[in-house]
Amino acid sequence: MENTVARRASTLGFKILTSLAAFLLLACSATFLVPLLPQRFWPSINYGMLTTILGCVVLLAGTALAVLWEEKEKQDTHKARVWQAYLIGVIRYSLAFIISTYGFAKIFKIQFTTADFIKDMPLGEVNGFYLTWHYFGYSYTLAVIIALFQIGGSILLLFRRTTLLGTMVLLPVMVNILFINMFYSIAVGAFVVSILITLGLSYLLFLDFQKLKEVFWAATDRLPSLSLKHYWLKPFLQFFPIMAAFGLIYQFVLRDTSDKQLVGTWKVAKFIRNDSLLPQDAWLKGQHRNYKGLFFRTVWSCL
Amino acid sequence: MYDPTHSLQGQYTFDTAQNTLQFIYYTTQSGPDTLKAQISDLTSTSMNMEGVLKNDSLRLELVKINRAN
After folding, report:
1. Cβ B61–A295 below 8 Å, yes or no?
2. Which one of A183, A207, A272, B5 is least enclosed by Cβ atoms within 10 Å?
3. Transmembrane stretches, by residue range (chain A) (predicted)?
C-alpha cells in the first residue's frame, strides 16, 4: 500500500486530484454550517453565487496547492508525504462530518418526515421525493439502522487503521443513496453532495487499490481446484445457478395468460342498478353497493 | 380515492372469446360470492358491463383512466 501511494504521489495529476478533493469536501462541509447563520440572513443568501464562488476558490486553491506540493516534493520528499497525509486527513474528516450529519438527521427525525398534506394526496400523484421520504420514514427502525451505518462508518474514517473498513462500509450505502437521489428526483443539492461523498469514498478506496486487488482477485481459497470428467461440465455448473434463476422466472413470463385488455382503472361514467340510473356521486352515499370504479390487476380486481 | 374498507376484492377471469367476466370475491359477512357479467363495446378507452351482483342487476358504462405509472 505504501508503495502504491508513493508511486501515485509522484504524479502531478494525483496531487491535483487529492488537493481538489480535499478543498471540495471542505467547502461542502462549510455549506452545512449555513443554517447556523441567523434566519434573517437566509433569504439574502444567493446559493448560485455562493456555489460559483466556492467552486472558483476550490479550483484555484486546489491547483495552486498541487503545484506547490510538486515543488516541495523536489526539495523534500518526506515533507511532501506529510502534506499528502494532511490532505487525505482533510478528505477523511470532511467525509466523516458530512456523512454522520445525515446519520444524526435520521436519528433525530430531521430527515424522512412527511407533511400531513402530502399524506392526504393519492399515491399516484406523489412525486419521487415525497415517495422516498414517506417510504423511508415509514419505519423509524430502518432509518436508525441506516443512520448507524453512516455514523459507524464515519467513526471508522477517523482512524488510519480503519479508514479502508469505513470506506467499504460507507460506499455501498452511499452508492445506494446516490442512485435514489438520481432516479427519484431528490433535491439537486442533496444529489450533488451524494456525488461528492461517493467520489471522495471512491478516492479513498482507490488509494488501497493494490491491497484490494490482492484480496479480491489474486487470493484464492487455497482449496484444490475441482476437475470434472467432461471439460464442459465445470463452466456449465458455474453458470447454472444464474441460468436456473433466469429460467425459473422466464417460464412465468412465457406461461402468463392473464388478461391484458381489462388491466387498469375504469371509472364508472354511468351506473344503472335495477333499471334505475344512479347519480355520479352515488358511491359516496350508499357505501359499496354503489360503485365508483373498477380496478383490474392481472388476475386480481376490485369493485 | 380508493378505500379498501368500502370495496369488494377478489379474483377474476375474463373470457375474451365470449366477452364474459367472472369475478369471485369474499366478504367477512357473507363469505364468497360471484359476479358474472357480460362485457360489450370494449375498446382501449371504454366498455360496458352488465351482470347480476347479489340481488341487483347492474349496468355500468366505464371509462378507462390513463395513469403515468
Report:
1. no
2. B5
3. 12-37, 49-69, 90-112, 132-157, 190-210, 231-253
Q: pTM of the full predicted structure?
A: 0.78
Residue pLDDT, tens place only, A25-53 = 999 999 888 888 887 777 777 778 888 88
Confidence of residue A114 (pLDDT cuts 50, 70, 90): confident
Say if residue A285's pLDDT is above 70.
no
The ranges of chain B with pLDDT < 50 are: none
Look up the ipTM and state it.
0.89
Q: Indicate whether A205 and A269 sit together in one domain.
A: no
Q: Using CB atoms and an 8 Å cut-off, which of residues 15-44 of chain B contact chain A?
A: 16, 21, 23, 25, 35, 39, 42
Q: How many CB atoms are closer than 10 A to CB A123? A: 10
β B9-15/B20-27 pair status: antiparallel
Question: Dihedral, CA atoms, A288, A291, A296, A299, nearest 10 degrees?
Answer: 40
B60 and A295 in contact by Cβ < 8 A?
A: no
**Contact criterion met (CB < 8 Å) for A273 and B67:** no
* Residue A298 belongs to domain spanning: 264-302
Q: β-strands A276-278, A264-273: how paired?
A: antiparallel
Q: A8 falls in which pLDDT band (50, 70, 90)?
A: very low
- Are residues A279 and A186 part of one domain? no
Q: Round to whole Å and give the CA distance between A191 and A129.
A: 12
At residue A10 the predicted structure's pLDDT band, cuts being 50, 70 and 90, is low
Which of B24, B29, B62, B67 has the most A C-beta neighbours within 10 Å, making it the best mutation to test the interface with A?
A: B62
B54: distance to nearest CA of chain A, Å? 10
Considering the domain architecture, whether residues A93 and A173 belong to the same structural domain is answered as yes
Separation of alpha carbons A163 and A15, rounded Å? 20
Closest residue in A to B3 (Cα–Cα): A288
- Whether residue A46 lies inside any domain: the answer is yes
Are B57 and A274 an interchain contact pair (Cβ–Cβ within 8 Å)? yes
Check whether residue A102 and residue A159 sit in a common domain: yes
